[in-house]
Design brief:
Blueprint lengths: L2 H11 L4 E3 L12 E3 L5 E2 L1
Antiparallel strand pairs: 1-2, 2-3
């Protein structure tokens, strides 16, 4: 499991919802999108 997948798992386990998730079954660049409770989007 790479670093981004570890971070993604931690975010999901904390109860936050991801608007877009990185695909852990592929290789190469990955990204995720997180929306906080105030509606701010983080990419």
């Amino acid at each position: 499991m790479n670093q981004q997948n570890k971070i993604q798992k931690k975010i999901k386990n904390s109860g936050l919802t991801l608007a877009s998730e990185a695909d852990d079954k592929t290789e190469g660049p990955a990204s995720l999108i997180l929306t906080d409770p105030d509606g701010n989007v983080f990419c």
